[in-house]
Amino acid sequence: MPNKPLSELRSDPIDGHKVYIAEDRAGRPNDYAGVRIAEASAASCPFCAGHEGETPAATMEVPGNGPWQVRVIPNKYPAVRYDAVQVAGDAEAPSGAHEVIIESPRHLRDVAELSTDELTRVLGVYRDRLRHWSQDDRLQHATLFKNVGFAAGASLEHVHSQLVALPFVPAAVEAELEGSRRYYQTHGQCIYCRLLADELRLGTRLVARRGSYAAFCAYAGRQPYETWLLPQEHAAQFHELADSELAEFASLLQHVLGRLRRQLGELSYNLILHTLPFHSAEAQLYHWHWELIPRTSQLAGLEWGAGVHINPLSPERAAQKLRDGDR
Amino acid sequence: MPNKPLSELRSDPIDGHKVYIAEDRAGRPNDYAGVRIAEASAASCPFCAGHEGETPAATMEVPGNGPWQVRVIPNKYPAVRYDAVQVAGDAEAPSGAHEVIIESPRHLRDVAELSTDELTRVLGVYRDRLRHWSQDDRLQHATLFKNVGFAAGASLEHVHSQLVALPFVPAAVEAELEGSRRYYQTHGQCIYCRLLADELRLGTRLVARRGSYAAFCAYAGRQPYETWLLPQEHAAQFHELADSELAEFASLLQHVLGRLRRQLGELSYNLILHTLPFHSAEAQLYHWHWELIPRTSQLAGLEWGAGVHINPLSPERAAQKLRDGDR
Question: Element (H or E) spanning B163, and its range?
Answer without folding.
Answer: strand B160-166
